[in-house]
Amino acid sequence: MSIVKTGSAIYKSLGKKGEASVSTETPALKDHPYGFTSRFEGGKGTNPEELLAAAHAACFTMALSFALEGEGYKEGDLKTDVSIFLDEDGDGFRISRSKLSLTANVKGIDEKEFDRIAHETKLACPVSKLFNADIELEYTLNVA
């Protein structure tokens, strides 16, 4: 069985001056602008790398929540920030790294157990599996 989610992009005109928009099947993004300036010059709109960062944050955080619950932990809160690194690669670019920065509050867990679960989840998250890049994890654990 496959779960299929969709997105689309439109690029009107070509190159740096092109006007583009991106949409998702849900109303989360509907004709949201993106383009060269938002990707490389800090202009208005979104860009593929920040969308990947948000997707990786959402996937990893949800997967970790379920992994912790599966290990018997009942109470906690998780917040993950993700940085995606876009580096020059010959004549083009490549995503070389995704850095997960997690703050976790989990009642009753010890550092060693949390470290194991978090690192296993880092590798098991479906979005992590999608990347051909280094995936780093740093975290702050607050035990309640």
From TrEMBL:
Q: A Pfam family matched by this chain, by name?
A: OsmC
InterPro entries assigned? KH_dom-like_a/b, OsmC/Ohr_fam, OsmC/Ohrsf, OsmC_Ohr_Peroxiredoxin, Peroxiredoxin_OsmC
> Which Gene Ontology molecular function entries are recorded, alphabetically?
peroxidase activity
Q: Which GO terms describe its biological process?
A: response to oxidative stress
The residues that cross the membrane are none
The chain's coiled-coil residues are none
The protein's matches in PANTHER family, at most eight in alphabetical order, are given as: OSMOTICALLY INDUCIBLE FAMILY PROTEIN
Q: What is this protein called?
A: Osmotically inducible protein OsmC
